[in-house]
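Working notes for the structural subgroup meeting. M.R. asked for a predicted model of this chain before we commit to crystallization trials. I am recording the input and output together here so anyone reviewing the notebook later can reproduce the run.

Input as submitted:
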Amino acid sequence: MSTIEHRAVIKFFTRKGLNATDIHKELDSVYGDSAPSYRTVAKWVAEFKDPERAFEDAPRSGRPSTTVTDENIQAIERIVMRDRQISVRRVANELGISKTRVHEIMDNHLGMSKVCTRWVPKLLTPVQRINRVECCQELLQESEEDPAKFLGRIVTGDESWIYHYDPLSQSEAKVWKKPEERTPTRPRQQRSTEKVMMTVFWDEDGILLTDYLARGSTITGPYYASLIKRLRSTILEKRRGKVSHGVLLLHDNAPVHKSNIVQAAIRQAGFVELNHPAYSPDIAPTDYHLFSHLKKFMRGKNFGSDDEAIQTVEDYLCDLDSEFFSEGIQSLCDRWQRVVASDGEYIQ
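Returned structure, recorded in token form:
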């Protein structure tokens, strides 16, 4: 039964002149296990000797029964917006309220939750974000008339290190275990120092050219210019009519790619270089699509030599179907639109 009902009965018997012991017996005979204890009955018998005493608890001094007030909601929002990493304990201590109430306000009233920050290649400046928006708008405008035809002319490429050993990430290293088993452990591992530099060019139909830099060498203007010449020859051999329709070369604006000798090689090959904003791997198909899948495939594997690592990469690329490459290129328009919609921020 409710507490208020018990108190009403106690007040009734008190007004009739019964003492606490008799009232407790009456309550026990009617309510059984749900009857209040003798101490509780005696307390309320004493309280109800005052005929004006109501059934509710007397007001308490100190902090009010609820701390979920507009003032505290606004104060918590100000504190959290000032320091996004602040703990609930520190907020509670600063305002003098419980952690439970802070959680309640942040969850139910502010709709806030603590999340892991998302990794981005670089904290972009306002100018760099504007440049990303303008570049994507320009590319969208160029592709507007016939997107399929425009994307079909694109040849894209980039460079990346291929490590002899690249450890699995924490999520990739998850294993199954039975309830009674201990959680498996593994030692902290680092990437190997042995690695080889890979350069790849591809289009919506598949791989056009791969090249692996000799150990001890670096990518220079003359080296990259020679790759552009080889790329043109490969396109003539593998993609009839593509050069005559006009190849749109999409690669990043690394210094070596912008060197005079490389720019001259691009013009001599008859390619048109598409504009690509700085620090933008999220709109470079080789980064967000090809290398993303390739590196995931390579992680956790251990290679004894450059040749072994290279052969594994080549086998992986050969097993990819044309749909994989088409998906990577066809997603460009959607990504350009998302960059514009996000005012130049990085997209996932």
